[in-house]
Amino acid sequence: MKTIIHKAEDRGFANHGWLQANHSFSFAGWYNPEKVHFGALRVLNDDVIAPKMGFGTHPHDNMEIITIPLKGVLKHRDNMHDEWQPVLPGEVQVMSAGTGVQHSEINGSVDEYLSLFQIWIIPEKQGVAPRYDQKQFDAEARKGKLQLLVSSFDDSDSESLKIHQDARLSRIDLSNGETFTYKLKSNEHGVYVMNISGNADIDDNILETRDAIGISETESFEIHAKDDLELLFIEVPMMNL
């Protein structure tokens, strides 16, 4: 098994006043040649956005973009919709930028900060038609077991959101003392595990809140919860860029 540890404090950080952004991988003005991507995973930003603030209209193309609000109210608008789309904690949003899309994202609250993960995954197909989707996921359904949030259009799972890449995004909540074995879909895949909160022991590595570990070249690995734990798994092909 091959592992790489990314400590929370070693992420790129940008303070824009209205935006506090932590970058797991090189992004915008922060560049680390050792942290450009993990397989097809290109971006994992951990953002906190001030009330009523956000990102004005901007373009994307040929990227699968997944947003997971953790706290607050996200509002999204793009050139596929006339109205603002609210996205709340417990929901997941996916957008295939494909041939090109223009969108805006703002904090929809006047007094509460918005906390979210934004994830970019390199697609397996270029030039697809842009598309948008979102879905609510029940937190009770991931207590002690894996909850699949996002998968490929070719994946047989019918409950998850879909993207143009052989990837799987999942969450699990474990109680102190619980153990869970994660099994990879393919030996050509790797898994980037983001510790949302708590303390985990993975392959004798202790991960604290917002620490991450990239795992590849294995069929499975075991997780031990050192206290109550929330984990995000991003399984992707280990493509060379």
Could you explain how this protein is built, in words?
It is a single chain. The protein has 241 residues and is mainly β. It is 0% helix and 54% strand. It has strands spanning 2-6, 12-15, 19-23, 41-49, 54-60, 64-71, 74-78, 85-87, 91-96, 101-107, 114-121, 131-136, 147-152, 161-163, 168-174, 179-183, 189-197, 200-202, 205-207, 212-216, 220-225, 229-237. Strands 1-20-17-22-15-13-14 form a seven-stranded mixed sheet, with no helix packed on it. The chain is globular, with a radius of gyration of 17 Å. It starts with a strand and ends with a strand.
Question: Tags for this entry?
Answer:
241 residues; 7-stranded antiparallel β-sheet; iron; metal ion binding; 7-stranded mixed β-sheet; Pirin family protein; RmlC_Cupin_sf; Jelly Rolls; Pirin
Would you kindly provide a brief summary of this structure?
Its cofactor is Fe cation. Residues 11-121 form the Pirin N-terminal domain. The chain is mostly beta strands and 241 residues long.
Coarse structural class: mainly beta
CATH topology (fold) name: Jelly Rolls
Radius of gyration, taken over Cα atoms and rounded to an integer in Å: 17 Å
CATH architecture: Sandwich
Strand content: over 45%
Oligomer: single chain
- The first-to-last residue Cα distance is 21 Å
Average the pLDDT over all residues and give the rounded result: 96
Assign a percent range to the helix content. under 10%
Strand arrangement in the largest pleated sheet? 1-20-17-22-15-13-14
Number of helices: 0
- Give the number of domains: 1
Any idea of the CATH class?
Mainly Beta
Count every beta strand, where a strand is a DSSP E run of 2 or more residues. 22
Binding site for Fe cation: 58, 60, 103, 105
Domain Quercetin 2,3-dioxygenase C-terminal cupin: 150-236
GO molecular function, one term: metal ion binding
InterPro entries: Pirin, Pirin_N_dom, Quercetinase_C, RmlC-like_jellyroll, RmlC_Cupin_sf
